[in-house]
Amino acid sequence: MSPTQLRRIYAFSDTYGRSKNPFLQDDADSLISTDFRSFPLQTVRREFDIYGRENMTAHILRLIFQLHQEIAESEYMPEEIHGAFMQTMTGIFINSAPRVGKQNGDPFYVATVKDKNIRIVTTSPEGLSSVKEEIGSIAHLPNESNKIYGTTEQFRSSYTAFLLHPDHNLPLIEDSLSIIPDFPEDSWELSYVDRFGNIMTFTKNPEKVWQDVLKKGSNGEKPVTLLIGHTSQEVHLGISLKDSEPGSLVLYPNGDLEILRKWEAGDDSIARLRKSAYFQFAKPEVGARVRVL
């Protein structure tokens, strides 16, 4: 098996046609985590519509990087699976290029990752900000004279996932990694909403943010008021979901910082969603600022 053989392809585009409501979407986090942790050598191709929630892909990139590392270091899988996994490649395709100017959309960029067989094709270098330290190289396909489509082609994304193949033989122009913006050190934002309405957040330093939140909540003895976007709610602080009170909103560390409502006995499936953190914070957008009042 060649180390450049694509085994897993995850495509994210605003062209696939689904609702932006996370309850009506496939849960990319759950599906991808299961792919890696339970079926690391299986051939996978999945597509997710991101229209209206384009920023969610930053969370998915971080997740896939983490899962690659997790499987490589796993102690529950035989050594032969480790070896075979390291010879496979994951391709991530991200397309969102609205035509708001005279040009035919932003160029498609191809990024490689240090020490991991991961290849990314994206229209947004900004979406690589939170993983910038792990990007090894970046180049772009010019919109003109690229041997794959003409200057007026409106469905470029139907061609450009081909760039996930390392041997695509198309003319790329090398770029400096400086075109990827630095992720703000003090930013704390909503990064993902799962199919149960649980909210995942991201900050470059979750340990520091968690300690700051604990101080606000008297080391977890009292709840804090959390603002997401334009809506605030009282949130309890916990160490894990297991220790949380049923029916309450809770913030707890789980790699990143997560906010959810623990289900109560008697909740039906509709109530669980309608009372979820996502609904209680008035359905905030991915990328919304999070802070403690």
Q: Which residue ranges are poorly predicted, with pLDDT under 50 across at least 5 consecutive positions?
A: none
End-to-end span in angstroms? 54 Å
N to C succession of SSEs? EHEHHEEEEHEEEHEEEEHHE
Radius of gyration based on Cα positions:
20 Å
- Which oligomeric form is depicted? single chain
Which structural class do you get from the secondary structure elements? alpha/beta
Strand content: 25-35%
How many helices? The count is: 7
The side-by-side strand order for the widest beta sheet comes to 2-1-3-5-4-6-7
Description:
This protein has 7 helices and 14 strands. It has a 7-stranded mixed beta sheet with strand order 2-1-3-5-4-6-7, covered by helices on one side. By secondary structure, it is α/β, with parallel strands linked by helices. The chain has helices at 28-38, 56-72, 79-85, 157-160, 206-216, 269-274, 277-280, and strands spanning 6-13, 44-49, 89-95, 108-113, 118-122, 135-141, 173-175, 188-193, 199-203, 224-228, 231-237, 249-254, 256-261, 290-292. Helix content is 20%, strand content 27%. The radius of gyration is 20 Å and the shape is globular.
Give structural attributes.
single chain, alpha/beta, seven-stranded mixed sheet, 14 strands, globular
